C-alpha cells in the first residue's frame, strides 16, 4: 500500500492503445499532460482525457501485462521525469501544504484511492519526503526510481551498492540430529489486530481495509463481514486474536516465536498513539503463554507504516526511535540487558535461552523497498548485518546453534537487493551454525531454499503464515519440533480453522484442526536443506505436489481452492522458493525447465 501511494504519479502510464496510434503515443500524451500541470499549476484542457486513457494498473507490482505493453525503460523514464519535477518544485520553494495538495489531487483524480485514503497516506508520509529532498542536495531521480521500481530494473547507479565484511573461513562441520531428545517451539505471526473490526459491515468496501466501523453495512451474505473475520481485505478482531492465542496455548512448547506485525492494515489513519496501544497487545502473550516469547518487529509497527528512520535523523516527529523504546519496555522480561541495547539501537537483538542455543531476532524491515529512508541512507541500516556476522562468528566459536527470526523474508523485489545479497553471504558462511530460520510478512505458508555458489542447498527459511486472513487465507499457527542437541528443525505442524464454517456458526467453538505435518505431507526423510531441495525437484516433476503446496499456502481456504493454481501459478511458486536475492533466477530457470519437460 505504501508503494502504491508513494508512486501516485507513477501509475499514470497509458497501457491502452485503443485511443492512440501506439502505446508510445498514449504514454507521451500522459507524460505531457502531467508535466504541463506540474510546471504551470494549471491543468491543460486535455488533462482529463489523457488520464482517462490510463486504466491504472499497479505499476509498482511489476504486473507482467504492463511490462509487456510499455516496457521497463519507459516506466523508468516517466518516473525520472516526475521525481525531477517534484525535486525542482521543492527547490523552488513549494511548501509542504502545496506539495500535499498536488499529490492528493493527482491521487484522487486518478482514482488510485478515495479522498480520505489519499489524504491520510500522503499527509502521513509527506514530512519524510520533504526531509529527504531538503537534506540531500545531490538527490537524483535514480535513487528514488531505482528503489521503488525494482521490478522494472530502473537504474539506481551506485546508490544502493555496498557490502558487509564477512569473517573468513568455512562453516563448521554439520552434526547430524538424532531426534532422541526434542522440544517444541510455537511460531505465530502477523496478527494485525484490528480494534475497529465490525461484523456485518461490507467486505467489499473499496478501501485498503474493510469491515471497519465507519464503512457501509454489507447488503447480503456474499459481501458481509463475518464474526471471526473475512477472506476479503480484513484483519483480526480482538476475540479472534484471543481465540488464536488460547488455542495455540493448548500445545506443549518451550518458546514462542512471533515474527511481526501487530498493527492493522488501516494504513490511512495510523498514528503513534494508536500504534503504541496496538503493539501493547504483547501483554496478551503474557496472559496466554507461560514461556518466553521472542518477537520481532513488523513493517506495520511504525507510523507511517514501512518507514524506519536513518541514524542521525534529528527531527523527533520523523524518528521511529519511539518504536524501539516501546518494545524494549514491552518485551523486557524476556530479554537480557545486552539484548535491550541493540533493540534500542536498531530493533534487533540476541539471547541464549539455554546452553548451546542462541536466538537472533532481526529487523529486516529496513530492507523494504518502500522504506523511504533508504533513499537517505541505505548502507547496512543500524549496522545490523555487520553485527549479525559478529554474533554468528561468536556462536561458531562457542559451538552454539542459532535460530534466525525476521519479518520480511529476502528474495522478492520488496527487499533491497544489496541487503538480501549481503544477508545471503552471511548465511552461506555460517550455514551449519544456523539451524533454524523463520519469517513472517507474507501471510502465506511458504518456504525458501538458500544455495551456495555451487548450487548446493545450505539453508531453508520457514514462513509463519498468519493469524490474519488478509486476504483469502484461513488463520493459522505452526508448531515446530526441534532436536534438543543440535537444535535442527525436525518437523512442523500447521493448525488452522475454516473461516467460512466458523462464521456460519459464530456461537459455536471454533473447530481448529491440524492441516498437515511437513514430513508426512511431502514424504521427506528430514527437513535438511538437501532434502527440501530434492522435494522441489519432485514438485517440478509431480505437479500434484506443487498443487498441494498452493493449497497449504492459503491453508485450504475456500477462496484459494476455488481459484486454483494454473501452470503459470505453479511455475511462479517454484521460482519463489529458490529466489533469495531479487534478480538471481538461475535456479528458478532450472526448475521451470524440469516442469516443462515433465509435461511433454
TrEMBL record:
Q: Which GO terms describe its biological process?
A: ceramide biosynthetic process; sphingomyelin catabolic process
| UniProt keyword annotation of Glycoprotein present | yes
Q: Which EC numbers does the record give? A: 3.1.4.12
Matching Gene3D superfamilies: 3.60.21.10
**Cystine pairs:** 107-118, 205-210, 367-415, 565-569
Its UniProt entry gives the catalysed reaction(s) as: a sphingomyelin + H2O = phosphocholine + an N-acylsphing-4-enine + H(+)
Its subcellular locations are:
Secreted
A molecular function (GO) held by this record is: metal ion binding
Which chain positions lie within coiled-coil regions? Answer: none
Which residues take part in binding Zn(2+) 1?
190, 192, 261, 443
Q: Which cofactors does this gene product need?
A: Zn(2+)
Provide the protein name.
Sphingomyelin phosphodiesterase
- Supply the source organism for this entry: Anoplophora glabripennis (Asian longhorn beetle)
Quick one: which gene encodes this?
ASM
Amino acid at each position: 500500500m505504501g508503494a502504491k501511494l508513494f508512486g501516485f504519479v507513477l501509475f499514470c502510464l497509458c497501457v491502452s492503445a485503443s485511443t492512440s496510434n501506439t502505446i508510445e503515443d498514449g504514454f507521451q500524451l500522459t507524460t505531457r499532460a502531467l508535466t504541463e500541470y506540474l510546471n504551470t499549476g494549471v491543468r491543460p484542457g486535455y488533462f482529463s482525457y489523457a488520464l482517462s486513457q490510463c486504466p491504472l494498473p499497479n505499476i509498482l507490482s511489476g504486473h507482467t501485462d504492463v511490462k509487456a505493453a510499455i516496457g521497463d525503460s519507459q516506466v523508468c523514464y516517466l518516473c525520472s521525469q516526475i521525481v525531477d519535477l517534484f525535486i525542482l518544485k521543492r527547490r523552488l520553494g513549494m511548501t509542504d501544504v502545496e506539495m500535499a495538495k498536488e499529490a492528493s489531487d493527482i491521487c484522487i483524480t486518478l482514482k488510485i484511492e478515495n479522498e480520505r485514503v489519499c489524504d491520510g497516506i500522503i499527509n502521513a508520509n509527506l514530512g519524510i519526503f520533504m526531509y529527504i529532498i531538503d537534506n540531500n542536495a545531490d538527490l537524483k531521480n535514480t535513487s528514488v526510481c531505482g528503489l521503488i521500481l525494482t521490478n522494472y530494473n530502473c537504474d539506481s547507479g551506485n546508490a544502493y551498492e555496498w557490502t558487509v565484511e564477512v569473517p573468513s573461513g568455512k562453516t563448521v562441520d554439520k552434526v547430524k540430529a538424532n531426534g532422541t531428545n526434542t522440544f517444541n517451539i510455537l511460531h505465530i505471526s502477523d496478527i494485525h489486530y484490528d480494534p475497529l473490526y465490525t461484523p456485518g459491515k461490507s467486505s467489499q468496501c473499496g478501501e485498503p481495509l474493510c469491515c471497519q466501523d465507519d464503512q457501509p453495512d454489507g447488503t447480503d451474505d456474499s459481501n458481509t463481514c463475518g464474526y471471526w473475520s473475512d477472506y476479503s481485505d480484513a484483519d483480526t478482531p480482538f476475540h479472534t486474536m484471543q481465540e488464536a492465542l488460547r488455542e495455540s496455548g493448548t500445545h506443549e512448547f518451550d518458546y514462542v516465536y512471533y515474527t511481526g506485525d501487530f498493527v492493522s492494515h488501516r494504513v490511512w489513519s495510523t498514528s503513534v498513539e494508536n500504534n503504541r496501544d496496538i503493539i501493547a497487545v504483547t501483554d496478551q502473550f503474557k496472559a496466554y503463554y507461560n514461556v518466553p516469547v521472542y518477537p520481532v518487529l513488523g513493517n506495520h509497527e511504525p507510523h507511517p507504516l514501512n518507514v524506519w528512520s536513518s541514524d542521525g535523523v534529528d527531527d523527533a516527529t520523523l524518528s521511529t526511535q519511539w518504536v524501539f523504546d516501546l518494545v524494549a519496555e514491552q518485551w523486557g522480561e524476556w530479554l537480557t540487558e545486552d539484548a535491550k541495547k541493540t533493540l534500542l539501537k536498531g530493533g534487533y537483538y540476541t539471547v541464549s535461552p539455554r546452553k548451546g542455543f542462541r536466538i537472533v531476532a532481526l529487523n529486516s524491515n529496513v530492507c523494504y523497498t518502500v522504506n523511504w529512508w533508504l533513499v537517505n541512507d541505505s548502507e547496512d541500516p543500524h549496522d545490523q548485518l555487520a553485527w549479525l556476522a559478529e554474533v554468528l562468528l561468536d556462536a561458531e566459536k562457542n559451538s552454539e546453534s542459532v535460530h534466525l527470526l525476521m519479518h520480511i523474508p529476502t528474495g522478492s523485489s520488496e527487499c533491497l537487493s544489496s541487503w538480501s545479497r549481503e544477508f545471503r553471504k552471511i548465511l552461506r558462511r555460517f550455514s551449519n551454525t544456523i539451524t533454524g530460520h523463520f519469517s513472517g510478512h507474507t501471510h502465506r505458508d511458504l518456504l525458501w531454499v538458500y544455495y551456495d555458489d555451487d548450487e548446493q542447498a545450505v539453508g531453508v527459511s520457514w514462513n509463519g503464515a498468519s493469524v490474519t486472513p488478509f486476504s483469502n487465507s484461513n488463520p493459522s499457527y505452526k508448531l515446530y519440533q526441534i532436536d534438543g542437541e543440535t537444535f535442527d528443525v525436525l518437523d512442523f505442524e500447521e493448525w488452522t480453522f475454516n473461516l467460512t464454517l466458523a462464521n456460519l456458526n459464530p456461537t459455536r467453538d471454533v473447530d481448529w484442526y491440524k492441516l498437515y505435518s511437513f514430513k508426512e505431507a511431502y514424504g521427506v526423510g528430514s527437513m535438511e536443506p538437501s532434502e527440501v531441495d530434492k522435494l522441489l525437484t519432485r514438485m517440478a516433476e509431480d505437479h500434484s505436489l506443487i498443487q498441494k503446496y498452493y493449497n497449504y499456502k492459503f491453508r485450504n481456504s475456500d477462496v484459494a481452492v476455488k481459484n486454483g493454481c494454473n501452470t503459470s501459478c505453479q511455475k511462479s511458486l517454484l521460482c519463489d522458493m529458490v529466489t533469495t536475492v531479487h534478480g538471481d533466477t538461475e535456479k528458478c530457470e532450472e526448475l521451470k525447465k524440469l516442469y516443462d519437460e515433465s509435461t511433454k
